[in-house]
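Assess this one:
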Amino acid sequence: MKSLRDILKEAEEKHIAIGHFNISDLVTLQAILDAAMSLSSPRKKVPIIIGTSEGEREFVGLENAVALVRAMRKKYKWPIFLNADHTHSVPKAKQAVDAGYDAVLFDGSKLPIEENI
């Protein structure tokens, strides 16, 4: 299966978007995957990025989110990736990377403007 980096590069070249959806439970995750599957064809699977904010990661659990996405990726052979969304600190970013997230979005919006820049 292609990496998230490869999927994003292809999307940029083709001028298409990849959906990013935040979750806090299995029901939402399954609904997002079902929607992507319904929009796909046998030759082209619509990739999706699942996000969890710091609060959602605390609620769901880092390892649980990784396990759910990996299990669905394997079971359905689907391009589904996991992003640590709205991460406000380097230690929280490291936790997500160590747990197996595919990407981390660092959010500096709570920092003073000088630090954010």
